[in-house]
Design the sequence.
């Protein structure tokens, strides 16, 4: 087969937390598709591209696609359709094509929209795994997120009070991503449960990193979008029935 | 400070799925502590050491410690106490010390026993994140384990029927590690729920890799110890309440 398309996980943001396999794939790629957003009217912002630059990847190989920041899926879908067509053309011409994704491409990554479209076009995509953000957050402070027989529940943003109560009551460790989306419920739970262990992470591995496990500090801190809150139930060693 | 101790995550087993940061740390290390087990009476087996060899790390730097395969913690604790003493001595002498862990060192890794002992000795340990096995399993077949607002529950081994029912009833994606430990309950759930999506993984990224998402094949397959079963609830897009 001529060419091929590879989904390359970039890891959590700190450039060297990319895998050796992913780095080699990017170095060997002919063209690398990178998502970007518009900050203001003109300024293009791409976290993926900044990681590639830091890793010394030839930026001339990068092809940006602008992902509209909108809840209306029509505009986003149009962009993805165009990108899939372009990627298929490059692969068809025998080029090695990479599509980058932050964190792991198969773990809460919007890259799945593109991969699903490619699959519907009959084009197979190879994936290279990466370090998810919550794993890097834990490692950054030596926090053993889960060990032995502990359970972990990951909730992206829109937490419900009932499921949070239920999970922590079972002794689960809960990882909440995009904390502001469930802000009211999280703050209310924290206020009623000072006994649990809370670990708040923001921009881990960057200059803007903010990490705290001090209850009072988390409570007064304004949550930012790509934040992670790990809650370890005080009773996590009990209530796990055989 | 003279010397330092770093917990280095090796990733899921495929050597190049280690991070660039971890590889550089191992290359710069003066001494690398690697867990090993005895296979039979004489033959030493160390998955960690095999990864290091494949990555071209100087194996003369490796110091093995034999982890007794026993449910009695006394013998294991004794080994860990000795290792901590040795590591502290090396670090105190100004050496760069690495301790390796498969997968991610903070995610269901027995390395936490050693790190906790070191902390009690007043020695701080830096951690380098790695790709957990379940992430690599998903990527190996392009399976998007969770996306958008889906929830994921990770259960290590000793599944209870009630929590499995409860999680899948909520529409959660469930990741079961060390499937044989909960074999009876898992098989019973599968028999009663052919509608869910099952993905079984064994030795991903090695020559002995076995992966299937065929319901009937999983049901007749003898589960092995380090296997992973991902169950995506058929109703995973419903029942997630705001």
Sequence:
């Amino acid at each position: 087969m001529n060419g091929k398309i590879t989904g390359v996980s970039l890891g959590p943001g700190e450039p060297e937390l990319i895998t050796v396999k992913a780095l080699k794939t990017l170095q060997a790629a002919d063209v690398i598709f990178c998502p970007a957003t518009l900050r203001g009217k003109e300024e293009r912002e791409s976290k993926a591209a900044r990681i590639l630059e830091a890793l010394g990847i030839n930026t001339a190989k990068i092809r940006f696609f602008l992902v509209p920041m909108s809840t209306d899926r029509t505009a986003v879908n149009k962009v993805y359709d165009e990108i899939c067509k372009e990627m298929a053309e490059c692969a068809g011409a025998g080029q090695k094509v990479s599509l980058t994704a932050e964190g792991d491409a198969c773990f809460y990554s919007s890259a799945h929209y593109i991969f699903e479209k490619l699959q519907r076009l009959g084009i197979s995509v190879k994936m290279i795994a990466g370090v998810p953000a919550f794993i890097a957050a834990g490692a950054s402070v030596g926090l053993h997120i889960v060990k032995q027989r502990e359970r972990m529940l990951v909730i992206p943003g829109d937490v419900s009070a009932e499921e949070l109560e239920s999970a922590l009551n079972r002794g689960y460790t809960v990882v909440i991503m995009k904390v502001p989306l469930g802000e009211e419920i999280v703050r209310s739970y924290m206020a009623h449960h000072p006994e649990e262990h809370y670990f708040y992470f923001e921009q881990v591995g960057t200059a803007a990193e903010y990490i705290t496990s001090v209850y009072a500090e988390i409570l007064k801190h304004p949550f930012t979008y790509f934040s992670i809150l790990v809650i370890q139930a005080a009773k996590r060693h009990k209530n796990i029935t055989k």
Summary: Chain A has eight helices and eleven strands. The mean pLDDT of chain A is 93. Chain A touches chain B through 61 residues (CB under 8 Å). The CA atoms of residues 37 and 67 of chain A lie 6 Å apart.
